[in-house]
Amino acid sequence: MPLPLQRQICFTLYATSMAVGRTYKPMLDELGVTYPQYLVLCTLGEGGDMTIGAIARRLGLEPSTITPLVKRLEVAGLVSRHRGQSDERQVHTTLTDQGRATLSRCSCLGESLIERSGMTLDQLDHLNEQIQRLRQALDPSAR
User: Fold this and answer.
1) Rounded CA gap, 126 and 129, in Å?
2) Could you tell me which of 102, 121, 103 has the C-alpha nearest to residue 113?
3) What is the pLDDT along the chain (143 residues), one digit of tens a residue?
4) Which of 5, 102, 130, 137 is deepest in the core (most CB within 10 A)?
5) So what's the pLDDT on residue 143?
6) How do 50-51 and 79-83 pair as beta strands?
7) Which residue stretches of 32-120 are H helix?
8) Cα–Cα distance between 74 and 110 in angstroms, integer?
């Protein structure tokens, strides 16, 4: 018989991820973006001009998942896309000024999480590092 759900880390991580999503949702709704779109904006904020493939690798997703997200962000005026000059198969994506402004307004998400968690920033950073080590141990491509 499997362990009770409360003792299974897979369930704890899943349920926590869902709770974080519910915490972020009202603020993301106000900004007009979904959580996956927010992740794309964050990725572009970190990396600048990136191909669809690079965004997908960074987020551990398939390019076919990223493409519709980027297209919707482009329609919203948050990103721009252009074909690579040396390889037209590659689609490069960059934040627009509006996208950078939206991303800067997303800083309240982390503040909200800290406040609602009842944990300090140092405690959350330590927890995040532990979870990252677990992910890297389970998925070597996440390094």
Assistant:
1) 5
2) 121
3) 889 999 999 999 999 999 999 999 999 999 999 999 999 999 999 988 999 999 999 998 999 999 999 999 999 999 999 887 777 778 899 999 999 999 998 887 888 889 999 999 999 999 999 999 999 999 877 76
4) 102
5) 65
6) unpaired
7) 35-47, 52-59, 63-75, 97-105, 107-117
8) 25
The helices-and-strands tally (H runs, E runs) of the chain is 7, 3
Cα angle at 21 between 124 and 67, to 5 degrees? 110
Percent helix, strand, coil in the chain (nearest 5)? Answer: 70, 10, 20
- Taking alpha carbons only, the member of 136, 105, 111 closest to residue 42 is 105
Q: How far apart are CA 94 and CA 51, in angstroms?
A: 9
> Can you give the pTM of this predicted structure?
0.86
Place of tokens 């603020």: 27
Contacts of 66 (CB under 8 A, 6+ apart): 40, 52, 55, 56, 59
CB of 79 closer than 8 Å to CB of 143: no
